[in-house]
Specification:
Elements (H helix, E strand, L loop, with lengths): L8 H19 L6 H8 L3 H7 L3 H26 L5 H19 L1 H13 L4 H25 L4 H21 L7 H13 L2
Helix pairs in contact: 1-2, 1-4, 1-6, 2-3, 4-7, 5-6, 5-7, 5-9, 7-8, 8-9
Length: 194
């Protein structure tokens, strides 16, 4: 990349984090190094060490970026869906970002799930993972309450966990099918148990 088109400041930091997500999607979190991130971002090595003090810092900031983007999307989505049929709104809440992600980049979903699993081994990632999951659970609980669920908190946990499990299975098989009918059936069954 020519020096005149290289990003500056916050844009440079974001380019580095996008490179981290790309590396994690392609080869896993263990492959992340300052040098590799700089190569993928096509930026000088000094830019990685300027913004990030360690590999842990790189991974944490990358997960934070992905979480912030998705939580902002989730908040906007929840505000727009007040008039939708509740079951469709619940399923869309969970699947729209997945389906959008698959259309734009399967790699971003792989990176996200890889880093969420890394939270089990890396305490610095855990707080972000919990906050991100809680955002889905809170939004799902509100929609399930509106739909008449007798246990909206428990039902939200089941629905989000089922969606994650189904998606990981699909990603591991290298294909994705339409998850919407299966999650719609689960949501309807949960709500029907009043």
């Amino acid at each position: 990349m020519p020096a005149t088109t290289r990003p500056r400041g916050a844009a440079r930091r974001e380019a580095l984090l996008e490179a981290v997500l790309h590396i994690v999607a392609e080869t896993g979190a263990d492959s992340v190094t300052h040098r590799r991130v700089a190569e993928v971002a096509e930026l000088p090595l000094a830019s990685t060490t300027y913004w990030f003090s360690s590999k842990e810092h790189l991974l944490t900031a990358a997960l934070e970026l992905a979480a912030e983007r998705d939580i902002a999307r989730l908040t906007a989505y929840a505000a727009q869906r007040s008039d939708d049929e509740p079951i469709d709104a619940i399923v869309s809440l969970v699947l729209d970002p997945v389906e959008d992600g698959l259309r734009t980049s399967r790699g971003s979903l792989i990176a996200t799930y890889t880093l969420l699993l890394e939270a089990a081994r890396r305490p610095a990632l855990r707080e972000i993972a919990v906050r991100w999951t809680d955002a889905y659970l809170d939004a799902g609980r509100e929609l399930l309450e509106r739909a008449g669920s007798s246990d909206p908190t428990g039902d939200a946990k089941l629905l989000v966990a089922a969606a994650d499990g189904l998606l990981i299975e699909e990603l591991s098989r290298g294909r994705t099918s339409n998850l919407r009918p299966r999650l719609r059936r689960l949501a309807a069954a949960l709500i029907a148990q009043r």
